[in-house]
Diaminopimelate decarboxylase (Aquimarina brevivitae), 410 residues
Amino acid sequence: MNYQDLIAITEQHGSPVYVYDAEKIESQYNRLCNAFTKVKHLKINYAVKALSNLSILKLLNSYGAGLDTVSIQEVKLGLLAGVQPEDIIYTPNGVSLTEIEEVAAMGVQINIDNLSILEQFGTKHPNIPVCIRINPHVMAGGNSKISVGHIDSKFGISIHQIPHILRIVENTNMTINGVHMHTGSDILDIEVFLYASEILFETATHFKDLDFIDFGSGFKVPYKEGDIETNIEELGDKLSKRFNSFCKSYGKDLTLGFEPGKFLVSEAGYFLAKVNVVKQTTSTVFAGIDTGFNHFIRPMFYNAQHQIINLSNPDGKERFYSIVGYICETDTFASNRRINEITEGDILAFKNAGAYCFSMASNYNSRYRPAEVLWYEGKDYVIRARETFDDLIKNQVSAPIFEKEPQLAE
């Protein structure tokens, strides 16, 4: 997919618009699988929360991926996309026992991350095997909002509470068929990940009926030229050797699981927007575009830096611009960024827009959410229509207190 293809998509489908390149998603999936070819059983469960469009779920399932879900709604989306229940793992946080029971009834793998629910579920449903999510107390991740394995995290059962887990398992006679961790996103240091893995291996020795060990994900992708990323090949080599060694000592060939989201879809995504106005102030040149953080919140929420390309003038002279949106508060995508000269009407492309972009979009300022387009084998397919005013109001109900009583003629 080239720049002209992207411009053509905006001409046909309008802007702003999200575009996903299926070929890149497939190559990332294959890259991860190829890094772990020395493991006998590998299971890649795509993290639905990154991008939950049904066509994306179907696409990844066609490659052989299962799904990692965090809500009953994501489970239902997966089933609707044709994913088999046994290929879905459900790892909620802070949800009710009722929701977990509803998901369990669907035949999905349950992953529990707190002692209270573990005991309640095991008491009522001792015959349903569950996985347990461990908090290894290892700090990893590129931002405090996405570091989830540290000691103050709300996620997982502390490794110091393993005796409590064992007591619950013994008292309920429930079966633990998997152990799981997720330390955080944007992991840079493989040695930190391997250190946390050792904690998970040690935890696994306490359970004799395991089928799998799930190492979560959080692999970092590059956001700009020269940016560092997780060395998947090195991780694959080192972790595969250690995993195979553990399986030998455990006496059983277990499945090695991962739950990548961003790694699979981030680089496949482009967010395209049109420049409405170029505004020169006393100190800054603003390029105001036809979108805002209601559609692309990562720069504001995570301080994420996304490369911005002027598709309409990719070879023009570079100037400094602050790229801002139309939301009625500070809404800055980039400050004083070197970009090829921008004029009103140009189309800008934000790279790495496949993960946590549409899935975190909103109707703030009563703006419509954009369309989503899948680029597959040289052709564009709309996989979500652009919203309309009817979509904006379809679930609103007018309170009867505002309905006037009919006036009687005198």
Remarks:
- The chain has two domains: 36-261, 269-383.
- The mean pLDDT is 93.
